[in-house]
Amino acid sequence: MKGILKLAYKLLVNDKAKFTALLVGITFAVFLMIAMASLFAGVLKRASATVINLGASIWVMDPSVQTVANTIGMPDYVLDAVRSVEGVHYAVPLYSGGALVKLRDGNYQSTTVVGLDDTSLFGRPQLLEGNIEDIYGENAFIVVKDTEFPKLNNPQIGTDFEVNDHRGVIVGIAEVASSGLFGVPTLYTTYERALQYIPNPRFTISYVLVEPRSPADIPNIKQQVQALGYLALTKDEFMAKISNFYKYQTGLGMNLLIMTVMSFIVGLSISGQTFYTFVLENLEKFGALKAMGAKSRELILMILFQASFTALTGYGLGIGLCSLTIALAKLRLPDYAAMITFWNLGLAFVMVVVIAAVSSYFGVRKVLRIEPFDIFRG
Question: Hey, which of 12, 39, 51, 233 would disulfide with 338, CB 3.0 to 4.6 Å?
C-alpha cells in the first residue's frame, strides 16, 4: 500500500505543469471562497458591534427594530414596567443615536453617541486614558479609539468640540471589542446629557438593557415584555436578528453568496478538467500497472490520493494567501472588515472535498475501463 501511494505521488508531481495548474485552480478557488465568506462574517460582526461592546444579557426594544442602528424610541413607562418584572435583577435605559460634531478646525463629522445610564454606567467601555468618573463632569464625553478615531483629528483628553451648539470635552479615550460598520466614530456620555445635547422625538429610550437574576428567568421576562407590546431578545438572538436582516433583506448576502458559488464553479471546472487531462495522459502507466497485477481498488486508491493531495495542498495555500491578503489590507485599510472564522474554513473545506470527489470520479471511471491489452496493442 505504501508503495502504491508513493508511486501515485511521483506520477503526480513529476508532471510539473499539470500539477501546478491543479494547485493554482484550487488555490484560487479557495482564496475567493474564503475571501468572500470572511468579508461577510466581518460585516455581520461589525453590524452587531454595539450589542457586542455593551454586553447586556437582554435587550428590550420596539418590535419594528431590525438592526441596532435602527432605533425606535420607547416611552419612559417601559423602563419602570421592565424593572417590575419578576426575575429582573436590574434594568437600565440606553440612548443610541447620531450627531453631527463640529471639530476645532471647523470641519463637521458624523458620530454615533451612546448615552449610558447615569447611575450605573452599565455597558461602559474599557478606558485607555482618563477616569470613568470624569464622565459626570460638565460637557464630558469619552471617545472610542478604533479605526474611525482619526476622523475626529485624533483627539486627546481635554480636546473640545461642539454638538448642536453645545460644548463637548473629551475626558477619556476607550477601546471596545468591535468597531462599527458604518464608518463613523463613537462617543460615550451619560444618558441625560445625550438627551440634553441631541434633538429627540417624544420617546427617548432607545433600548432597555436587562440583566436577569438567572438564565431560568429569561423566558418569563420575554413573555412579560411581550405582554407590554415590546420585544425582548437575548444578546445572541439580537445578533442573529441583525445578521438575518443583512443576509435576507439587503443585497449584501445574495451578492456575496453568488461570488462564493462562482469561485466554487471556477475551482471545480479548472481542477476537474486539468485532473481529467492528467489521467488521460497517464493512461498507459495505469494500464501497465494493471497488466502487472495491480488491482482495481489499488488504482482507485492512487486516483483518490492524487486528487486529495492536490485539493488539500491547494486548500492550505488558499488559506495562507487569503490570510496574508487580509492582513496586508488591514494595514493599509483600517476599515477593512474581513475576518476568517472556523465556519468559513469549514465551508471552504467542504467545497474542496466536493471538488476532489468530482475530479477523482471522472478519473476513476476512465482508469477502471482500461484494458491492458489495449495499452500494449497501441
Answer: 39
